[in-house]
Amino acid sequence: MRNSLVCLSGFLSLEIQVFQVPEVHATPSSDVTLLCTYNGSGVEEATVGFYKWYRHLVKTELEVSNSNKDFTGRISRVNTDQFINTRSAQITIHNVIPSDTANYYCEVTFIHGGEITGHGPGTLLNVTGSRRSAPRGPEVLR
Ligand SMILES: *[C@@H]1O[C@H](CO)[C@@H](O)[C@H](O)[C@H]1NC(C)=O
Ligand SMILES: *[C@@H]1O[C@H](CO)[C@@H](O)[C@H](O)[C@H]1NC(C)=O
Known about the structure:
Blueprint: H1 2-12, E1 17-20, E2 23-26, E3 32-34, E4 36-39, E5 48-56, E6 61-63, E7 75-77, H2 80-85, E8 91-93, E9 102-112, E10 114-119, E11 123-127, H3 138-141
Parallel strand pairs: 2-11
Antiparallel strand pairs: 1-4, 3-8, 5-6, 5-9, 7-8, 9-10, 9-11
This protein binds 2-acetamido-2-deoxy-beta-D-glucopyranose (2 copies).
């Protein structure tokens, strides 16, 4: 009886807070790291977890990953050790383009008795300006 009560309160104490940078400016073709960290009571004991990022557009939310055609080959993530031990859930988007401009949300999930998920307040990625000469060729015609 007593043991099951202790387990229950331990389970309920797991909370996740997720922190993001409000805004990031970048020029086309650069690599941008979207920072995300988390902490929370009970997170130390949770050993299984993962993170995802979403791009928020007006009508849809798309997961930001290499299997999304908008980002194929352009996403780097931290490995599981870094995610667990340094509490980093950052991604890097390589070779950004103006149409990457959007709000990006970091979502962290831990499995600790049940599944606990938290997400950050969002990062506005703003890709504007051009560092070198204006792009030429097919890109202009899009
Ligand atoms: C989260 O981290 C901050 C700063 O290290 C700390 O003050 C706070 O107590 C932590 N929150 C939890 C719930 O662990
Ligand atoms: C992005 O930055 C430019 C230049 O600072 C600004 O004019 C534009 O409104 C910003 N776009 C968004 C979506 O905030």
